[in-house]
């Protein structure tokens, strides 16, 4: 539209009103005061382009969640003036952009899995990566099959864009999620050689893209979640390659697998037996969900099942369990479901987790994985809230 | 995913089940029977790529709306088999693709305005244009400001893509919608020279893109919707240019402006006075809405107003009014809100409209403008229904 058709814009931030000359407009055709906008004959607000409104507020916004309302009146010549103009009225609620100058004693990243609802609908993979940088994170986690175009053979152009994008945005590739799909071949199990080949394929691709961690999601063979025994030999055959590529292989400890479990014992025995530095534990913080048994239906993973079956009874996991395995933990997938308007997470006890991890000397990544309500536009907001919350805890501890 | 992880796909069409070898799979890596899919070691179903399932059904589908359910089981190795696999279950309901071999005595087109809810969210302008062709239409109507990137100065690359895309898809540009935004300049009205300049700008762009009709949406000056008097001189100054470009200028008769109204009289007087062939009437079929006064809140255009004001009382418009002006009608905007599962439109009396228009010898465009419930994914389905309905009426008449 011709931008001179805009009338009476008002921005309300936490109840404080700004309007008229208090708002500066940045449009693709230039920057304008409101008077300049009204007097303009060539300023345009094109379809599909954001207008950036800058409001002068001494001191800026405090860190946290703010209520922002934007009211705009558009003169529509073809509707009688007596009937009014088109009033656009949008309310938003969201965290501010964390300052990237924060000096955190650990890394903050985001898994692109968080954007599952938006991906392919409102956002491309590239949009998601831009959002990770925009929210102030520096670590980027992906799913190989889910986010690499033409997996397992991305084009050179895709790989070039991956590196130049990350450099421009200041992002470090952290973890590459892969699958050891042991039920891939109908009617028979996967052999060790096939498992090793799948792992090698993903390791090489992860190495080519600059990742430091690889999480193989290993198939299970029983209701109590014992993993397919081929995993150990499949991983062992790839330890030299992982060392060469500088990648640590870390299976995920994800509810209903918990910290004190036969699976974790099996992983730690493997690590001790091989004496490798290329293997460690990934903790999904969903295991510490304090409301798990207050909620219906179990975890999201099991909600995807047929529904008639129920997950096995699994004990509540105190954060103190984490202390016992911290020396083997190489990565945190900072799974969460909801951070409210007061920056409180009623599910995951972040302060306790950070205390145990950081007191044990952990300085690696916390990589956010949003897995709450599946609604468009929700993940970007929730990720900002979670990072603001984690940063505020880090500041309290400092 | 590896396509061998797919299990037990079933397609149900109007209650008839197809499964196993009855379904052929087309994936980016190749075409497969279900047995071939299960035996494959390299077949992949990549993220964001459709799998096309072809079901062999003698005689094919009848024209109309069909219930289609698709059930798919995916073996997820990391979830215990006892708890089941991921069941994907999708129901769809939609019209089949009309045969493009239909020999209609008029043109069927679509206005991209129909996709307003999807545009910029689930679809790009290019996606919408692809959908217009896919649903079997041959006419393409756009809004200049809304659909041309960098309006009013699209790049040569954009224009080249416009022409090559339309040629590939078999689409003819029909009508270009523009605005004569008479309230564009705050505090003063638009001059005739300014109005003529705006119209010239849009005419030249419409001509460059190959359109045959231009609809200027003219600003109004009173509650009873009299149009700004500058329109007549602004149009008259452009009649030679319109002739040169082969474009007919046709203001829209859109409720609450009705056929028997001072505005239409003004238009017809202009046409008679100038004797021009470059001017005519565009009828928006929303004027014939038989349920207008049964619905709350009036038309969508007025729902956008402030809400406190009410549109003026406007009489019900019988389709017989159309017969009186058919000699001046150059274009139909086939506005509609909903076509139900039985292909019945309870709002717009299509049979009557087509009878009056075609009996009067009209052989121009009916260009669909969906303006019903604003829900994602709804417009493409409704447009298919409406075209199936209009084609079935044309077949009855033939």
Automatic annotation (TrEMBL), chains A, B:
In terms of superkingdom, the source organism counts as: Bacteria
InterPro entries from the UniProt entry: CGDB (IPR045959), IolE/XylAMocC-like (IPR050312), Xyl_isomerase-like_sf (IPR036237), Xyl_isomerase-like_TIM-brl (IPR013022)
This protein is called C-deglycosylation enzyme beta subunit
Q: Which GO MF term does the entry hold, naming one?
A: isomerase activity
Limits of the Xylose isomerase-like TIM barrel domain: 130-392
User: What is stated as this protein's family in its record?
Assistant: Belongs to the C-glycoside deglycosidase beta subunit family.
What residue stretches are annotated with the C-glycoside deglycosidase beta subunit domain?
A: 2-78
């Amino acid at each position: 539209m011709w931008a001179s058709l805009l009338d009476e814009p008002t921005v309300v931030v936490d109840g404080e009103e700004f309007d008229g000359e208090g708002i500066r407009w940045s449009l693709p055709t230039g920057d304008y005061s409101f008077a300049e906008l009204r007097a303009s004959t060539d300023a345009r607000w094109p379809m599909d382009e954001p207008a950036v409104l800058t409001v002068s507020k001494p001191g800026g916004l405090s860190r946290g969640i703010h209520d922002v309302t934007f009211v705009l009146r558009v003169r529509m010549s073809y509707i009688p003036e007596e009937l009014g103009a088109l009033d656009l009225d949008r309310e938003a609620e969201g965290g501010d952009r964390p300052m990237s100058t924060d000096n955190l004693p650990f890394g903050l990243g985001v898994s692109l899995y968080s954007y599952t609802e938006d991906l392919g609908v409102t956002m491309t993979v590239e949009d998601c990566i831009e959002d990770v940088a925009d929210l102030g994170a520096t670590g980027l986690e992906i799913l190989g099959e889910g986010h690499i175009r033409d997996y397992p053979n991305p084009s050179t152009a895709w790989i070039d864009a991956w590196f130049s994008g990350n450099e421009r945005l200041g992002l470090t590739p952290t973890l590459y999620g892969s699958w050891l799909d042991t039920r891939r071949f109908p009617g028979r199990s996967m052999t060790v050689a096939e498992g090793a080949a799948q792992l090698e394929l993903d390791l090489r691709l992860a190495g080519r893209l600059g990742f430091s961690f690889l999480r193989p999601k290993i198939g299970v063979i029983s209701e109590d979640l014992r993993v397919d025994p081929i995993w150990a030999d499949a991983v062992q055959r790839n330890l030299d390659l992982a060392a060469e590529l500088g990648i640590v292989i870390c299976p995920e400890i994800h509810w209903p697998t918990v910290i004190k479990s036969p699976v974790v014992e099996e992983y730690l025995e493997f690590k001790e037996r091989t004496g490798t530095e290329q293997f460690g534990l990934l903790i999904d913080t969903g295991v510490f969900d304090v409301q798990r048994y207050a909620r219906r239906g179990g975890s999201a993973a099991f909600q995807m099942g047929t529904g008639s079956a129920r997950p096995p009874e699994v004990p509540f996991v105190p954060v103190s369990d984490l202390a016992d395995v911290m020396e083997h933990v190489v990565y945190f997938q900072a799974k969460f479901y909801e951070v409210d308007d007061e920056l409180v997470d009623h599910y995951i006890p972040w302060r306790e987790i950070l205390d145990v991890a950081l007191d044990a000397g952990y300085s690696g990544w916390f990589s956010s994985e949003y897995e709450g309500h599946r609604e468009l536009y929700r993940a970007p907001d929730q990720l900002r809230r979670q990072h603001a919350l984690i940063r505020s805890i880090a500041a309290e501890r400092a």
